Amino acid sequence: MSETAEFQPPIDEQPRMPGSEEQMADKPDWTPRYRGSGRLEGKVAIVTGGDSGIGRAVAVLFAREGADITLVYLADEETPDAERTKALVEQEGRQALCLKGDLGRQDFAKEVVSKTIDTFGKLDILVNNAGEQHPDDEIEDITEQQLRRTFQTNIFSMFFLAQAARPYLRRGSAIVNCTSVTMYKGSDNLLDYSATKGAITAFTRSLSENLVKEGIRVNAVAPGPIWTPLNPFGGQPPEDMKDFGKGTPMGRPGQPNEVAPAFLFLACEDSSYMSGQVLHPNGGIVVSG
């Protein structure tokens, strides 16, 4: 994507997304809950939004299972999150490549894949986890810039990365996309975000149909409210944070390490007979589809 009006830069809001896990007083729990069993031994994975939250939990769990990781992240300024995640991957005995940039730029998506191939020699798993959201109570409050930015980050990036990765994916490869419970039950103050998550689910099912005969599986995870930097750093109104996640049947938000195993299952051979499907770690919210 050229550096023209086609690209929508980050929305000028405070606090600025994506936020920093290291700045949170109540730190998310990313720690894997069990020993590795080699389910991704020798694999290479790209994890977007990989510096914190769900992305960090996925990256560390994948490393524990034997994968080398390319961590892709966006930050307006230097934060310790990415380097911390890189160190955690390396503590698991695997390699980590950190790439900072905006996946709404097609040229950066291509760079992510090319540098992954240059560093590790192959690509087996693509985890499209990066996303952003901007709460608005009224549809009239959603600006054109915000609408374009949300779609650019949440769904355009997935197209760009899948396009760039496709020549390197082969039989046995897997793509795992991050959709959301809001796609199924809606959200009165996340209209544009929820719309992108509907697009992601449709993209997942359609790309699965497109690639399944090549032996490449495409699935998705639809988390409920998960305790990550996204929400306290602008993804939810500050006044709503005290009750964040309490509306689920379990009465609490989930932790990143409660979501990461769903990504692992869909990335490894345990799910070899699944494609075009969505898993729902959402605190007990019953949804269809």
Automatic annotation (TrEMBL):
InterPro entries: NAD(P)-bd_dom_sf, Sc_DH/Rdtase_CS, SDR_fam
Disordered: region residues: 1-36
Biased composition (Basic and acidic residues): 24-36
Gene3D superfamilies from the UniProt entry: NAD(P)-binding Rossmann-like Domain
Pfam families: adh_short_C2
Keywords from the UniProt entry: Oxidoreductase
Protein family (similarity comment): Belongs to the short-chain dehydrogenases/reductases (SDR) family.
Stated name of the protein: SDR family oxidoreductase
The species this protein was found in: Novosphingobium decolorationis
